[in-house]
Specification:
A hairpin with a 2-residue loop joins strand 2 and strand 3. The strands form two sheets. The protein has a six-stranded antiparallel beta sheet with strand order 6-5-4-9-8-7, sandwiched between helices. Strands 1-3-2 form a three-stranded antiparallel beta sheet. The chain has 255 residues and is α+β, with helices and mostly antiparallel strands. The protein starts with a helix and ends in a 5-residue tail after the last helix. It has two domains: 75 residues, Winged helix-like DNA-binding domain superfamily/Winged helix DNA-binding domain (Arc Repressor Mutant, subunit A, Orthogonal Bundle), CATH 1.10.10.10; 168 residues, Beta-Lactamase (2-Layer Sandwich).
Amino acid sequence: MSLSENSGTVEAVRKAVAVLFAVSEGEGPVSLSEVARKTGVPVATARRLLMTLVGASLVRREGKGYTLGVRAFEIGKKAEKKMDLIEIARPHLRRLSDETGENANLAVLDNTDVVYLSCEECSKMVRAFTVTGARVPAHATGVGKVLLAGLSDGEIEALYRGVELVKFTARTVSTLSDLLREVRKARELGFAFDEGEREEGVLCVAAPVREYGGQVKAAVSVSGPSTRLDRQRVLAQGRTLECASAISRHLGWTT
């Protein structure tokens, strides 16, 4: 396959995915013209892609519109099964939040971002603000550092090739060499801190969750105002490591 053919195939897949997302976001059946408008593709292209997705049972016709098909449902259910990690982690996160008096979070790596799967909030009026489902650049977070620490330096270099490291505060790392230094430190220590690197005045301590075989599966963290959390840094670090170890044992990892 030539380079131009390969590029065309990738672009077609990208458009098909965009069409599938457009259908999934509708509260009811989504019309052909609406799909074309949301994706920015010509109506004829949208029709062709929809027919392909209908043929794969990822989308189905409903009246004059389109909704998700049975295969999309099946894929979603399989993904849901793999998300049992959240149910395993939740009671441990709740305990971590109660013991430290701060928010406790569970996150996974997605390319160069971290995605928060679960956030257990503390009862204090002033607290760190993290939302389940939030996506944040990995280089500016404690969870990101420990998740990246599960990769080799070569994998990290490939992952960040051509990626700009956005500087959120004066403390944010903005070069790959600085990021690698932080990741190596997290790899060596088994935990990492985020000291106002994503948001001024917020401190975070994070530790890796490992599955059977020792691979880093996720990360847990405690986050809160630095004026308060810094005073119990050692406690937060210890409790976070204990929480990560407890979840890891459920996943089959023993040290």
